[in-house]
Amino acid sequence: MSWYLSLSEAIHELGNDNFFKQLVTAIEKKVPALSAVMYIMPKHQSPALLYQNYPAEVSIATQQWLSGPYLLDPFYIKSFDGSPEDLYHLTDAAPDGFTESHYYKSYYRDTDCNDEVCYLAHINTDLVVSLALARVGSSPLFTPAELSTFDTIKPLVISLIKQQSERMGNQTDENQRLIHQHLKEKLASFGEQLLTKREREIVQLVFKGNSSKSMASRLHLSLDTINMHKRNAYKKLNISSQSELFSLLINRLSSHH
Fold it and tell me: What are the tens digits of pLDDT across the range 37-70?
């Protein structure tokens, strides 16, 4: 009964800023102990934060994420790679080496995130709203039953998000469009003055959390060849670890040049 009451309150808040909070409150009646973050993501602009309720003791680097690293986020990539509107579990959305990537260590481990699912609602071909629901700190992983519950309520959750988005309207921010385009160009051109085309291709896959094994399979190369290209790239960039590689990228994305 509490689920239906909370759901009716969320529906009543459609069109208001309080809708996002009420929707998460309703979902928690089904699956408790959720930390939520919600973004509106135009394809040609930087994302914007709609709502988040992470506990005060957990450091969620929202502004840092919005400054450029969002381009490496598995759910953001899913939003515009042709994947359908759906509910995604992090273990399915992320590449196989994701938990070893510096992105994961910076934006998941540091927030004490244990598990995460994300609803991706396609408002139109160029606009997606994401609702990521996580277990953080000492909270347990999602159980199979809880993951099934998320999936069962998916049509309703996505429908409500889309109704709310339609009432909000879609405003184009030219400044954010230019920033987003600039960040994409910086990511795509990383290392172009120093690295070969193959080395750059591999570095881009490293950024997104792919393991050497998955890169070998994807590029139809041997593991030894992948590792050789990585070593050569690191040497040319004057670094010795993935952590340093990621730092170079963050510095590049945050620079104004």
Answer: 999 999 988 898 999 998 777 666 777 788 888 8
SS (H, E, C) 135-175: EECCCCCCCHHHHHHHHHCHHHHHHHHHHHHHHHCCCCCHH
Predicted structure pTM score = 0.83
Kindly calculate the radius of gyration of the chain based on its CA atoms and give it in whole angstroms: 19
Contacts of 204 (CB under 8 A, 6+ apart): 187, 188, 190
Q: Tell me the two tokens of residue 144.
A: 């199979």
> Which residue type sits at 46?
S
Strand partners, 92: none
SS3 121: strand
Q: How far is CA 49 from the centre of its chain?
A: 12
Question: CA–CA separation, 254 vs 223, rounded Å?
Answer: 33
Strands (E), the chain: 35-42, 48-52, 86-89, 113-124, 127-136
76 by Cβ neighbours in 10 Å (0-12 / 13-18 / 19+) ranks as buried
Structure tokens at 21: 């909070």
Task: Assess whether pLDDT exceeds 90 at residue 116.
Answer: yes
Fold of the domain spanning 189-254: Arc Repressor Mutant, subunit A (1.10.10)
Architecture of domain 2-168: 2-Layer Sandwich (3.30)
CA distances from 100 to 12, 108, 171, 203 (A): 43, 11, 37, 15
